[in-house]
Amino acid sequence: MEAQVKWVEEFKFLGQSNSGHSVVMDGNGGATAPSPMEMVMMAAGGCSSVDVVAGLKDAEQTVYSCNAKVTSERRETAPRLFTTMNIHFDIAGDNLDEAIIEQVTAASLQKYCSVCLMLGEGVTMTHSWSIVQA
């Protein structure tokens, strides 16, 4: 796996993945694009969401939507590392089994999500979930 990050101007950077996709990042607190730290949060939410949807489908649950809201806290001083992060999943579907939802959301953070597992080495990672109407 490989990626490149090119400086564009001021504190704006262009990230380019080996798979041919690009994303703009803004190191100026996210003034014009997501900041690199916001990208880490989105990566954790995206990676974990893949696990949750796949796990629910594997358990033959009928899922209509899965929205992840990622919240975090960071140190006050540099380096401003994440100290805590929570991923809350709002899941909609037919006759969803709460025990299965708990199992797949927990398994994502504890076993499968590469991003969460890397962050979990230094960040207190938690999850929560709710069933919502589609």
Describe this structure in words.
The structure is a single chain. With 134 residues, the protein is α+β, with helices and mostly antiparallel strands. It is built from three helices and six strands; from the N terminus they run E-E-E-H-E-E-H-H-E. The strands form two sheets. The chain has a three-stranded antiparallel β-sheet, with no helix packed on it. Strands 4-5-6 form a three-stranded mixed β-sheet, covered by helices on one side. The model has no long low-confidence stretch (mean pLDDT 96). This is OsmC-like protein. Pfam families: OsmC (PF02566).
Features:
3-stranded mixed sheet; N-terminal domain of TfIIb; 3 helices; GMP Synthetase, Chain A, domain 3; 134 residues; alpha+beta; 2 domains
Mean pLDDT: 96
Helix content: 25-40%
Count of distinct structural domains: 2
Strand order in the largest sheet? 1-2-3
Query: In the CATH hierarchy, what is the class of the largest domain?
Result: Alpha Beta
Question: How does the helix and strand content classify structurally?
Answer: alpha+beta
Shape: globular
First-to-last CA distance: 37 Å
Number of helices: 3
Series of H and E elements: EEEHEEHHE
Quick one: biggest sheet?
3 strands, antiparallel
Q: What is the CATH T-level topology of the largest domain? A: GMP Synthetase, Chain A, domain 3
Second-tier CATH architecture of the largest domain: 2-Layer Sandwich
InterPro entries: KH_dom-like_a/b, OsmC/Ohr_fam, OsmC/Ohrsf
Protein name: OsmC-like protein
Pfam families: OsmC
